[in-house]
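Predict both folds.
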Amino acid sequence: MDKPQAAFKDKKFLESPEGRSIRILAEYEKVKSVFELHKIIDTITFFGSARVKSKEDNNNLNDENTVCYEQARSLAHKFTTWSKEYSKDHNRFVVATGGGPGIMEAANRGALEAGGKSIGLGIKLPEEQKNNKYITPELSLQFYYFFMRKFFLVQPAKASIMFPGGFGTLDELTEILTLKQTKKIQKPMPIVMVGKKFWNSTINFNYLVERNMIKKEDLNLFLITDHIEQAFDFVSCILKDHCVDNPEAVI
């Protein structure tokens, strides 16, 4: 008779529906342990489309999407340069992304070019999406569950930078706005949406107010801008005033 297999070595069980809670907990504990090992205190998280390309990957065309890529790259560079002033090991206000191509790649790239570290929280998809090459290798992680990935994109974040994107970006934006609106996030956490034309065309916030779906004061939960200098100043001022000496998580 074969010796019974230990449960933690039973691949069939661990990958079964009955093992789901263990897989969820494993994702949580793995990422938490990596953050603790590298003393990551908090982040500035960039969200946006995986479909935009850099100028060199877009046949040197400078279309709207390529402009977004370069803006994300530049803004991540600015935040990384600024954040390195607050910790010798650069563990404060670390740029974090969903780990993929597009805007995510641009932000990780900007952080690397500024001489800093950055985090990439990738997702396993049927259509294989690899983490981009600009992420700090030891901070390049992968998730199976979207909701657990979203938790780590938001929980340590002191600011959310939203670039144009599709369903995934809209999902992330609306959940963060809901957390702010319902005061699940009570501490200051600036939300910046870069690209006025895109965001005003995609979501008619004034119509939501007109229809009494949100309150007028809910429009103060975020800033929409075309200018990365304004985005940087808006976020860095709030973080300096409220977060530098208060590193606790927002949720």
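Second protein follows, with its predicted structure tokens after the sequence.
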Amino acid sequence: MGNKSETVEVAENNHEEREENRLESVEQEVLVEDKQEVVVVKKAKPLSRNEEAKALIKNSEALISEVDSEVRETKVIVAQNVANFELMKATISNSTLRESSSLLEQVNFEHLKDEVEEPFEVSLGTGYQNINVPSIRSGRFTGLLLALIGMLVTAVAWILLASAKTASYIQFDKIPDQTQIQNIFLWIGGGMTGGAGDPMFGMATVGVSAFVVGLVIYKMRVSMKENKNFKVANKIFEESNSYVVNQQESKTEMEYVNEHIQECTPLIEGYKILLDEQNA
């Protein structure tokens, strides 16, 4: 009987341990899911106008840089093939054709018409002006300067108004005495409403009102700058897309010219071989 009871107790203990482990694993899964949900929320944070403007400018720069790089590579290839074509043309004109003309003159062959040699010219210009992509500035620095100026003007306006109301006129070429300062802040701190007034409350009123004015000016400046940046970035992005389309068209035309030159090159080589055989 003692062995059976011990076996039952061991089985119960094992069952309890398994149950505790299962609960701990469930809690860990819940924590992991909660963490994953938090990460998803952070990723879904909306961009500000300034961040959207910077992203548009960055995309515009990437588009322009990529298409300009492709056009430059195409120009190099076309220019090299044109140079090779001109070299082959000059070689045939100065050797093979000249020898053929000399042989024809020996048999009294007369040219009915003098052919005027026209230069082979290929324009590799795209004809489109490059887009100047501006940098995006947040406007915080100028906003801070304007806010400080607004705060100073607000504080000075309070002091001038209070000095006029209390007849404690301040002379800016002299340092005001303690009585003038106290009268001014007493009026601001409650005297203007008919109360006794408190100088400390008056100082707090001037400080808080100046801070509020400065904050409003700062927020307005930053908001106006963000809206302007967003409009400029959208305009630049649209222009960059048009620029890319135009550059792609120019690249396609240059590739067509390059293909035509590559087709003509073996034909000229064949004519040269044929004329050399005839001259021989």
